[in-house]
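Fig. S4 source data, part A: sequence.
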Amino acid sequence: MDPLTHTLVGASLASTRLGRTTRLATPALVIGANLPDVDVLSYLRGADAALGFRRGWTHGVPALVVLPALLAAALWLWSRRRPEPEGSRVSGVRLTALSYLAVLTHPALDWLNTYGTRWWMPFRDAWSYGDSVFIMDPWLWLALGGCWLLPRRPTRRLAIALATVTGLLLLVVAIRAPDYLVVVAVVAALLGAALIARLPPLGRAARALPALGLALAAGYIAGMIWLQGLTEERVRAALPAEPGRAADELMVAPQPVDPRRWDVVYLDGESRYRFGSFDWRRGGELSLSSARLTAARRAWLEARGGEQIPGFLRWVRFPWIEAAPAGPREPIHVMDARYARRRTTGFGGAIIEAPRGEDGIEAVGAGR
């Protein structure tokens, strides 16, 4: 999930009774909810290196054991260097427990989308995908953010932070998914309204709002997981019967905003990817594009581009290729059908600079 969702989960947990169990509970929960994303530093080595490293070592089971302990120890040592306020102390046991809870929420949320998580890194480099919740989900922002902001005082610092985060989100969405921009802007406006809203005195009820936000988010996620399973079952039944079709090469994933519309990618019996959508608004109708993408054998890709794009080849889920003649060393364009249905050199695409071999580009899609 995106950093805003992770942060809102940590902040909402900190606004419940958990945030009052020990001093430094809030930084433990907020930092812990984002801590596995420390692997973003891998971008310093380049985009390809980051693709091969992210959501691996810092998101796997060993990291879930080590990272919370390191966070709790760091916060405890920091507290030793500062005088404790009267009536407030740090409980090492509670701080550790909160750190483990917060860190665990991160890969659990990341698993929900099509990007996936490698739970068993570094022991087993295998991706697992929930395909149930879109990576930037405005309904989660609204439930978590609205319930967290409503009972809070609209301070200048909080307003600046919200405006900064909103601006960054709008920029990212404008670049990658402009059709999504209006919805994100509306959600951002609602969150701003929640911040400046003047609620009547609610007493303890105001403290319960963040917990309500967490409950709403959990219920929404559970519903999306159930709906994904149901949708995938309907899609499998609706797919055309084709000899040799790979039953496991199928993705049914949510489209932005509307839980009734789902994205579909599958490998047909001719080793080509087909894609389309499943729409519950039309009684559960599967619509497939007539376009077919040439699926690429992983062994062929690794032999040709293993040294050039190792990170991309570790990350790609549905690789397809398109060649573009350009002199004696013809570049081979490789894309991931999850995110790219046309040739791209941006996210979801890569280039192998290699001469066309005797097997030819046509042979790349002949089998898996």
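Fig. S4 source data, part B ends here. The radius of gyration is 23 Å.
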